[in-house]
Design brief:
249 residues, alpha+beta, seven-stranded antiparallel beta sheet, two-stranded antiparallel sheet, 8 helices, 42% helix, 26% strand, globular
Amino acid sequence: MDKVFKALADETRRHLLDRLHEQNGQTLAQLCERLNMARQSVTQHLAVLEAANLVSTVKRGREKLHYLNPVPLQEIQERWIDKFERPRLRMLSAVKQRAEDKMSDKPSFVYVTYIESTPEKVWQAITDPELSLQYWGHSNVSDWQVGSTWEHRRADGSAADVVGVIEESTPPRRLVFTWADPSTPDVTSKVTFDIQRYGEIVRLTVTHDDLADEAELRSAAGGWAAVLSNMKSFLETGKPMSLPPWKAS
């Protein structure tokens, strides 16, 4: 939280966040366009924002795209603002909620977390049915080969709440699959797990593309934050949180 407040204290960094709020997924060149500042200085400001987890990056070809990560801002709101004026400010927040990025080739939602683990263990936690059941409440079932189907099955095995098809599988670095309600399997979004060794830890980036609307974007943001926080706890301590985040509200 100290890094977040430090990052927000600078006017230029607040301006960069505003730019990403207006249009998410910009390159360094695009962010420099309206700033009377050298590229190196802008890069340094972005590094501070990334260290505070307010900005995340995704490489697309030779470009590096920058995305606003709203999770730390949401944590500030919940800790310092929301509990005092919850009803009124939630209404204002809904009115001011940023518009969905309309570029279909850009992630609709990006979440970055750092885990004290290895890429192999993170991959296993995502793809092993027994392990995913422990922190996600569902079993992820597939052979994880490109073109194969996958299912997000309930704990009792009675049904799958999500289904899809594997589009890319490169253990233990990258996994891409479609995401759909079993009742409407042709209406899909896409989820990508990028698993990178980051010194002695792991940087996990989850992107969720092609979300239908603002309601689905908000649902994805809350859902991924809860699941990935529980997975981080599971991998680092050997057990999930005593109360799953999605049951705490």
